[in-house]
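Archive entry. Fields below.
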Amino acid sequence: MTFRTQFEKELEELKLSLIKMGDLVIKNIHLSLHSFVEMNAELADQIIKDDKLVNQFEYDIEKECMRIILREQPVARDLRLITSVLKMITDLERIGDHASDISKLTIFMEKNNKPFLVKQVHKMADESEKMIKMALESFVNQNQTIALKVIENDDIVDDYFNEVQHIVAEAIRQSNIDADYALYLMMVTKYLERIGDHAVNIAEWVIFSIIGHHRN
Amino acid sequence: MINNVFTIKNLNLFYGKYQALHSINLDIERNKVTALIGPSGCGKSTFLRCLNRMNDLIDSCQIDGEVLYHNDNVYNKNFDVISLRTKVGMVFQKPNPFPMAIYDNIAYGPRCQGVKDKTELNKIVEKSLKNAALWEEVKDRLKDSAMSLSGGQQQRLCIARAIAMEPEVILMDEPTSALDPIATMKIEELINDLKQNYAIVIVTHSMQQAARISDNTAFFHLGELVEYDKTDIIFTTPKKVKTEEYITGRFG
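PREDICTED_STRUCTURE:
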């Protein structure tokens, strides 16, 4: 039985907002890679515009957290949960920025460059998206096992990053890749690798909200 | 051990057949504020009153276990209760100044103890009022009745009255529940200053107050000590589910 029905409702709404922000960010990563691969400047442009919505989510959630801290004076698991949300939205916002960054590269390289497609980049994007989904799932269900799995999966993304690096280096040596495109591709890959790191940060905050301290 | 003023061992308390405290084990540290929290009827005030034997005044009250004040059980038959209450002062929920002058309120205790020298009494009154952060407000009206002071000032006067006896421990039973927010803030600041010289044990219904002012927090429920730890830990990562449910407002 709870005496804090309103507070419980506010916490549920906060979780829901975070999920919505996460969904938008995942969609933007997905589309940004499409825009890059397909050299679709129009789509890229749309993603850059949509990044404002991500920023708005961050602003709104931050404001809501501050309001809850002020009005409900949360302690213990509630305080940890809200602190974690405040930290997680920063990571989600940064992921959104990276989706936008990838889209900006699409606009720069349009027309002039010959594409060089590497399947590992797609796999990286898929894995990063999966990590974010899992990190958010672990948060909503307060599930430490899933959060730990996210942290573990970062190695997969890092391995893909190294593979792409080798493939691109070899392609440069063999003159099979346009120089500008090689640079852009490595930048995209680096953004995806960073997105994986942000998903790890989110998972670490989930663990903090569950156990009350940072894992070693 | 050397930093503990009180060590409570296996304390049980009965009001007639009703057991109000169950096997309480707890240490009260020197120069620390210890907050006792818990829902109404959980035994926190009863526990507080055990520390200076205020429960002796209740006929049906029976106690077993030990309340060690510097290794002496205060419930030993030959223990000097008057001296205990001198060393363990108490401040109550409602300010209860004596209906006499401000000066006489403070001088009352020392006079009872045999201090007659006027200069000495003046010194005690000034020092006590200064330590209770009241001196500046009353120094020009020491002969006025204590009843003319505001509620917050009266409560600080009661604290000054306790300090005048040079106690080692000050017990406070919801000392700010009858005060407005500003007066509450002043008392809280005062508590923070006082812990430099005294051990303070405070019963409070305000968990925010416990979180703000205490170093250690004890959570009581149904006469049992559920959890006792550093306040930071109690309010961020309590170990017991019951504690977490209470402080997050899920029951109470």
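CURATOR_NOTE: Residues 76-109 of chain A form the longest helix (34 residues).
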